[in-house]
Amino acid sequence: MFSHLSPDIGIDLGTAVTPVLERGRGVTLREPSYVAIDRRKDRVLAVGAEARLMNGRAPSHVEVVRPVRDGVIADYDTAETMIRHLIGRTRNNGLLRPRIMVGVPSDATDVERRAVSEATRAAGARVVYIVPQPLAAAVGAGLPVLEARGSMIVDLGGGTSQAAVMSMGGIIVSGCIRVAGDRMDDALVSHLRRAHNLLVGERSAEELKIAIGAAIPVVDPRSARIRGRDLQSGLPREVTVDSNELSAVFSEHVREIAEMVRQLLESTPPELASDIVESGIALCGGGCLLHGMDEFLTQQTGVFCFRVEDPLSSVALGAERLFSDPRLMRIVFNGQAAGPIGPRV
Length: 345
What we know:
Layout: E1 8-12, E2 17-22, E3 26-32, E4 35-38, E5 43-47, H1 49-54, E6 62-65, E7 68-69, E8 72-73, H2 76-88, E9 99-104, H3 110-122, E10 127-132, H4 133-140, E11 151-156, E12 161-167, E13 170-177, H5 181-196, E14 198-199, H6 202-212, E15 223-230, E16 236-242, H7 243-266, H8 270-279, E17 281-284, H9 293-301, E18 305-307, H10 314-324, H11 326-334, E19 339-341
Parallel strand pairs: 1-9, 9-10, 11-17, 17-18
Antiparallel strand pairs: 1-2, 2-3, 4-5, 4-6, 7-8, 10-19, 11-12, 12-13, 14-15, 15-16
Helix pairs in contact: 2-3, 4-10, 5-6, 5-7, 7-9, 10-11
């Protein structure tokens, strides 16, 4: 009745990127999770893509902050600033402040969940709903989470790699490790320094990973050039690397992710595990776009793994579907898997 007065917004609070969805309009923003601050004037200079471009290029009095680390808030004030900026860029023309649903890691503590809620409320939300990212992603991917059968999703983000088994609207078992895209970027920076005597920034490493990164070696690898500073001469230099070199750099990380998924399958009740073997494991998040990740996880687990249709938007799309389905909303938020923080709908 009051949906036109109070807009609904879904936010997938990410370590690397934060997608924002407006109910009825889909994902309208997808901003890097960066904030640039002028420390001399204590003033925010930029948020999102503009702030990310300043990283490694700004003068000493300008600090580029990543307010979300490992999927949770690391800098409260900056996180509030970022969320406020994102809300301000939506078409929030309602007479009431928006209801906002925020996805957080499945293992977030009560303190971490409360920090997200308070930052979002301070940024302008009327009601805040905190939902585990794997559950929201499963809903967004269209998995049958309300049915009395097992569904499994693996969400590979920038700060965390998460997996969850769901049935009847709740999470049965879940796992979360802090081994994800950021750790791969750090490993790539270290490798280029050690193997090529080349110093590069995290942004350049991430762009290289996205361009030619791979989870497994291939017969016909792709190659790309990356520029940095030669550690001996101090001068700019360019080197060429290929996807097989990157797959070797990432091998330890993808093995840890596969082990987390395998352990979760081992702890899944037998009937639900049987359902998962039949339907497969859904993959979402930017990490699943790493070449061969689906094939690698299939090999390691013995269960067919597949990318969902829109892997970068699954959590935000899940928020839209939850807002749009009162029955689903009621089941999910009355269970133990997730809970609203704020007034009841």
